[in-house]
Amino acid sequence: MHAPKATLHRYLRTAREAFRWKLDGLSEYDLRRPLTPTATNLLGLLRHTSSVEVGYLGEVFGRPFPDAVPWFDERADVNADMWVPAGETSASVFAFADRAAAHADATIAALDLDAEGRVPWWGDAANPVTLHLILVHVVAEWNRHAGHADIVRELIDGEVGLRKGAENLPAVEPSWWIDYRARVERAALDAGGLTDRGPGPPA
Question: What is the dotted CATH code of the domain comprising 4-169?
Answer without folding.
Answer: 1.20.120.450
